[in-house]
Amino acid sequence: MSMNMKDIEFQSASYNQWKEEAVKALKGKPFESLFTKTIENITLEPLYTQETLLEKLGDQLEKQVSTIRSLTESASFTVAQQINGADAASFFANLEESLLRGNEMITIYSPVAFDWSEENLSKLATYFSENSFKVTVKSSEDDVLRVFDYIDKSKRAAVKGFIVAPEAILLADYPNVRTYAADTVPFHNDGANAVQELAIALVQAAELAKDTDDFKTFENKFFVQFAVDTQFFAEVAKIRAFKVLWKAFTSAFGHEASAVTVVAETSVRSFSKYDVYVNLLRAGNEAFSAAIGGADVITVHPHDALTALTGQSVRIARNVSLVTKEESHVTNVIDPAGGSYFIESLTADYVKEAWALFLEIEKAGGLHAYGIDAKIEEVYNTRIAQVETRKHSLIGTNIYANPVDEIPTAENAQFADVKRIALPFENLRANFAQSGLKPAILTFGELKNYKPRADFVQGFFATAGIVAHQTAGFQTIEDAVQWLESAEYDYVVVAATDDDTKAILPTLLQSKKANVVLDVAGKFKDDEAAWTANGLKGFIFAGQNIVQKLNDVVTRVKEVQQ
């Protein structure tokens, strides 16, 4: 008997029915154990349904979706590849190459490695007359801004672009150059979370709006710039949330909101100098979330942006945008995330929390009076703690690290001050490289029994750029003692099952040389006091702060060798 799938109807289950089954599966654990907290202190639920979303937002859901769509300029985005060059000749060669290869917006980070001479400014003016641009400057005195003096007056009205600066740049005769930037990138690079970034953007917008007599003129000159991190759905929700916030913001000024321009660049705060090709995956993830969130301009930083760029890395970064734009089909739909129960809920949470924080900052008298730097520092410290304990994975750095990776010596000044979460591990590797420490793993018993712990310890060491010598599993305590007495290693970790460890460790502690630091893999709370009293230095286990532990190992080895 044949069965037509079209005729089959599956019974729908309510949220409460699903919850009942989940509670059974948890076998005594509380249902709340399925909930997680984001770094913004927003609770993520294990399941989102239309039922729960409507219960949470009601009529507000439809308003949220329609607001986001009405305030989105276009379903597509502009590819804005940053132009770099060691000198003027290579800069303009790279600029020309990028335009030929699909770049749609000339993106410049100033200062550059050469002088903006009259010849160079005149040449740049030609490109600005024919192409849109984004220029980031440190101040209104930056030499590159003199380029606008070199553009023919008859062409100035048609020139389109963005200027990112700490203060509004006043340009006469350039109606289509947006110079009022709410730039949250510096705060993002210091560690700010999504809610803080959204609130900061509104604070900056309020400051800029106060300095203009006509709000509509301000709105036509305004844009917001975000850095987009690796938290995919969070970043989609962040960009969407700003559009809802923008409508509330303009309403507070007594105006009807127009589409707000969102400029985005991929974040480098999750970039690492080790295993740099993972940065390529991070940037691709970030660019895709920016496109789904509704960014109008996207810059993708190359995977080796922290050190020295290559022609290949620049091309790959540009192609990330091109593939997203041309092959993903995501730009065929305005607000492709619209209607997703999870993203709509997260968007609403961001709107609520960011607006409350914005009002709080305004009441305090501004960002400085509110103490935003200290608040961001707290978030950054939380991020670092999560990475150091592997609650947040940084592939190739704090987990699945390649111990033979060598750190490049070059450094890109543009990102030198970014508070990257990989920095503690990069510093850890440097510390171990200078120490000359010689570690080993003493394994005992059958391979299948000790291998999980031995592999864990090797992975632990790999984050510091170390490959520890590993013994074959000793079968007798006598063999293990003999090896320990004769081995020329500074630091030894015992890796065995709980029972084997308890059986052999007291003897090993009696036999080890005074200048050898001995640790154990695993947690042994009942035996900890007795073992440490007899010379054991510590333990290695999951959830431990890797950076603190391994730096402490270096210190202890130095102490016993003195």
UniProtKB/TrEMBL annotation:
InterPro entries: Cbl-dep_enz_cat (IPR016176), MeMalonylCoA_mutase_a/b_cat (IPR006099). It holds the Pfam family MM_CoA_mutase. It comes from the Bacteria. Residues 173-408 form the Methylmalonyl-CoA mutase alpha/beta chain catalytic domain. Gene3D superfamilies: Cobalamin-binding domain (3.40.50.280), Methylmalonyl-CoA mutase (3.20.20.240). PANTHER family: METHYLMALONYL-COA MUTASE, LARGE SUBUNIT, METHYLMALONYL-COA MUTASE, MITOCHONDRIAL-RELATED. This is Methylmalonyl-CoA mutase. It comes from Solibacillus faecavium.
